[in-house]
Write a structure and sequence with these properties.
This protein is an alpha/beta fold and 525 residues long. Helices cover 53% and strands 12% of the residues. It folds into three domains: 4-171, 3-Layer(aba) Sandwich (Rossmann fold), CATH 3.40.50.2300; 190-324, GAF domain (Beta-Lactamase, 2-Layer Sandwich); 347-522, Hypothetical protein af1432 (Orthogonal Bundle). The radius of gyration is 36 Å and the shape is elongated.
Length: 525
């Protein structure tokens, strides 16, 4: 069995000056607040091993970073230390509180603590108790050394090799995180339909990607995205301390940046890399400029700069596409309103009827937990509920008195006509409009028209719009009736709950009646 004295003798290339030198406070702590260090953990039950290791590695430096050395004198103590801190390398004794304490610790680190990055070097003074071949085969370690092998020079060589391996593994891991961020982020940001939501998602994903690249170094990265149109800047998205500047002028948010630099960047449509910030400006095809600002950056590598430039370039294209899609949706909604208003105007109803029905329908959709997309479709399609009245003769549509049986047959045809007009459309909103037009006069008990559908056989959009349409018709004056009081309306819905109307939807309507009345007041006749 080798003693610690044997090991110290083998390490005789440590000169007297090194062995007996006074350690500065920095050496004792192994820390320097202004200098990032490699973390090394020495786990051994002999204090002399710790002392000699620290002396041998005094002044060691790799990739312009020094070592910080911590000590644990048992496997149990090492578990506590590892639970609180990450290490690049562990020099681990095999025999401590038990003959296999070190091997048990390796198993815990890899399988319980789930640290696959740290480089583990086993050191033993009793190689016979832990044969090298068996240990390397059975345990996930990175090297196996007898203590008598590790002269100062060899210990330095071992640290260089281990830290180089650790650095490369961490680099690959961070690249993997970055790739995952891109994949997840792309799905997130490109699924957004709102320009503001898209910009916010893109900004958050870029921040996440940069933070993954350098771990703690990038922990304070925040930023914003803005647009410049007709000499007016507007912050569209922001993270962290820049969130209060949403929808405000860019200049207010960038007070810390010299104004001339901001103007130069905008004017040149270029990229400016400051000491800890980045400003990127790219021209949109929609006669605007888009501006990206990132703050809290350390010194960027060439790869980081290329990443930012590439992000700005591709974000500009995506930004335009989202803006165009948003414009198409707005146009589609406007056309639906115009078409619906044209029909309503024939029956001398106000155009705001279709707006109120749309808003009440969205409210009810949200109350029964339809997802956001379904609520959007319902909101845009609800105004089409009476599109079939375009085929109803004026003398029937505008008759102030009671309709005859023959006239009522013709009036009822508008539901099926509306369904048929929109039935062949491949557009989601118009397809939903077809279902609404056809089903909004069906009744929960099966006595409605045109098909006599019952209960949940009636499309949910049709059931919702039926309630919104009737409430609005009763609440407002029509050519054939006076407006009802809110008490009378509530009484009717209670009476028709489970008969004409879906009972769950009636409950939601009455519970939210104040919000429904607010919609009426917002869009009055």
């Amino acid at each position: 069995m080798h003693t610690i004295r044997d090991w110290q003798q083998v390490m005789g290339d440590l000169d007297d000056k090194l062995v007996f030198a006074d350690e500065s406070p920095e050496d004792e702590s192994g820390k320097d607040a202004n200098y990032e260090r490699w973390e090394l953990l020495v786990v051994d039950d002999e204090s002399e091993v710790h002392e000699v290791t620290k002396l041998s590695l005094k002044g060691f430096e790799f990739a312009k970073r020094k070592l910080s050395i911590d000590s644990a004198f048992s496997a149990a103590e090492a578990r506590s230390v590892l639970a609180e801190k990450d290490y690049a390398v562990i020099l681990l004794d095999v025999v401590m509180e038990t003959d296999h304490a070190g091997l048990d610790l390796v198993h815990w680190i890899r399988n319980v603590h789930q640290d696959q990055h740290v480089r583990i070097i086993l050191r033993t003074g009793q190689p016979g108790q832990a044969p090298e071949k068996a240990v390397i085969q059975e345990y996930d370690i990175n090297d196996y050394k007898e203590k008598t092998e590790l002269t100062s020079n060899k210990l330095h060589t071992l640290m260089y090799a281990s830290l180089r391996s650790y650095r490369d593994i961490i680099s690959l891991f961070r690249n993997k995180q970055g790739l995952e961020s891109i994949i997840v982020g792309a799905d997130k940001i490109f699924s957004q339909h709102s320009l503001m939501d898209f910009t916010q998602g893109a900004l958050e994903q870029l921040t996440s990607l940069l933070k993954a690249d350098e771990g703690a170094f990038f922990g304070n990265i925040e930023g914003l995205a803005a647009t410049l149109e007709e000499n007016e800047t507007t912050v569209l998205a922001a993270t962290g301390p820049y969130k209060p500047y949403l929808n405000r002028r860019l200049e207010a948010a960038l007070a810390k940046i010299p104004e001339v630099e901001v103007h130069n960047a905008i004017a040149s449509e270029g990229l400016i890399f400051g000491d800890d910030y980045f400003i990127g400006v790219y021209r949109s095809h929609l006669k605007r400029k888009n501006i990206l600002f990132m703050d809290g950056l350390p010194k960027l590598t060439m790869l980081d700069e290329r990443l930012l430039k590439m992000f700005c370039s591709h974000l500009g294209v995506a930004f335009d596409n989202i803006a165009l899609m948003e414009e198409v949706e707005i146009t589609q909604r406007e056309l639906v309103y115009r078409m619906s208003e044209a029909v309503e105007s024939r029956s001398k109803e106000t155009s705001n009827h279709v707006k109120r029905v749309a808003h009440i329908s969205r409210l009810l959709g949200e109350c029964i937990k339809l997802d956001e997309h379904e609520c959007d479709v319902l909101f845009m399609a609800a105004p089409l509920h009476d599109i079939g009245k375009i085929a109803t003769p004026d003398h029937i549509l505008n008759k102030p008195g009671k309709l005859t049986d023959e006239e009522w047959v013709i009036m009822r045809q508008h539901a099926q006509t509306g369904r048929d007009i929109l039935a062949d459309s491949k557009l989601e909103v118009l397809s939903a409009g077809s279902a609404i037009a056809g089903d909004h006069h069906e009744k929960w008990d099966g006595t409605g028209y045109p098909k006599g559908k019952k209960g949940e056989d009636i499309h949910i959009y049709g059931r919702i719009v039926a309630i919104a349409d009737v409430f609005d018709a009763l609440y407002n004056k029509r050519c054939y009736k006076e407006a009802w009081s809110i008490g009378e309306i509530i009484q009717l819905f209670n009476d028709q709950k489970g008969k004409q109307f879906d009972p769950e939807l009636v409950d939601k309507l009455l519970y939210n009646v104040d919000k429904v009345i607010n919609i009426q007041n917002t869009y009055p006749d």
